């Protein structure tokens, strides 16, 4: 019975549940990939170990399922997902293209980079798309996400836990970032990937191109400059307006289009937990 009421690592009162209920976060996932590709070792690890070019949409679906499980799954499901990821990472190595050094994919510095760019992308996209969040809620989101960082093997004390700490982390790591050949290949692929179900010559291509352009524009100006493009304020404004328009459009669609089984199960468990709490019999 406990698992049937277990609301997982975060729960209905969390900033995490509020932010991740937004369908516009699909833009954030692509934004984080653009950012992550600027870290030479991180992108080398992906290119040398991942079959993302052969099965990009399968990899995307697995990533979406992982994030959904961590955010909305039971505590046991989230921890099991984390164990699977740690097991996969522990078996992988890559070669630094600049130095020839062999390195592990689960190096803390790489795991931290992926974590920070991911959660910062989720949060920044939500805010710029019009989700109202106070400074306290922003910091609360980062602090909550330490639980997700721990799942992949990071020491929570080593992970930025507030907006100020994330800003400081980016300033610290920026000298290590660069536009490498692997980053250029990844950028080109993310901008024009093969679409599934023979959608390549349909309006779906234009829709994807618009989403990709918005995701790229939502990056920090310094990241766009590393890619060789201007970090102009007008680009920031255009990307923000596009994100707001996309959020408005997505929120006008029926919610059933975005509510997968993991989310629905979480809502059902939260409802049962609330019902038991209100009845005063939740002591078990």
From TrEMBL:
Pfam families associated with the record: MPAB_Lcp_cat
GO molecular function, one term: oxidoreductase activity
Domain of life: Bacteria
InterPro entries found in the cross-reference section: MPAB/Lcp_cat_dom
All residue ranges annotated as the ER-bound oxygenase mpaB/mpaB'/Rubber oxygenase catalytic domain in the record: 17-247
Protein name: ER-bound oxygenase mpaB/mpaB'/Rubber oxygenase catalytic domain-containing protein
Species annotation: Rhizocola hellebori
